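A favour, since you know our structure tokens better than I do. Could you add the entry underneath, on a fresh line?
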Amino acid sequence: MSGPGAPPPGGEVARRPRILWGGAFFLAAYHLGSLLVFRVGWSWPAVAACLAVYWAQIFGLSAGYHRYFSHRSFKTGRAFQLALALLGGLAAQMGPLWWASHHRRHHRCADRPGDAHSPVLSGFLWSHLGWFLSEEFRATDEAAVRDWNGFPELRWLDRGRVAVPGALLAVLFAAGVLLERARPEWGATGPQMLVWGGLLATTLCYQVTFCVNSVAHLFGRRRFDTPDNSRNLWLVALLTNGEGWHNNHHRFPSSERHGLRWWEWDPTHYLLRLLSALGIVWEIQVPPRRALREAPGAPPDPA
């Protein structure tokens, strides 16, 4: 027996944990603050900032926190490794080591007892948001990320989780103040740039990336017969630069490429291939050709 009202068997996540109210306030502040777009108005610089920050956050989470730090699906140098950690940090979803440690746990027991955010075991709201605010998952599982513990800059970013998103908000506000003085005809202001580029972009990033844990384990198509309930969902893939091909990913978790057919939108993969051509990343992992034959119509060459 399992479920919200059942005592957790060995290793299963407790369903009524203590909520981190500081984290809940932080998350609510972003969501409620994003509604200020109706108060501060809009300008083209503010809209551009929103789109640019959203894209940087999604790429940082997808290429950095997920494909690199969690699954090591490619290699890179220490400088670009730090850049990926900083880009992921813009999304205000904790530090790179925290993120990777809990994601690795998810893959060890996806949709089974011990999975921190399974909608199958714990319901939609828990998997979408509740687990992220639970005191049970506040700490980084150091044992799960021993391969990254030797980098002091990553440990610092993990401890100072608010530093990068805080710096982003400050830079956006300052940029708006400067634009208001230098180009008043553009209509940008400090509060406007902060709300559009900081609060709204981050809120959108929260919601679409949380959908990978919740929606993509409930709705969509299952190309591969994996032991979990992961699914491919084109809308989530469209909004997350390829992360919505979740069933593909659970079948080949170490693969850098998630969209396995030409029509499966995966901009993170496209950009990483470009970076590979430039020598910035290398040793990109791909699924074996023979394994792809499990699914009718899968491409013969994933490269």
Q: What stands out?
A: The radius of gyration is 20 Å. DSSP finds 14 helices and two strands in the chain. Residues 1-14, 298-303 have pLDDT under 50 and may be disordered. The beta strands are 75-76, 281-282.
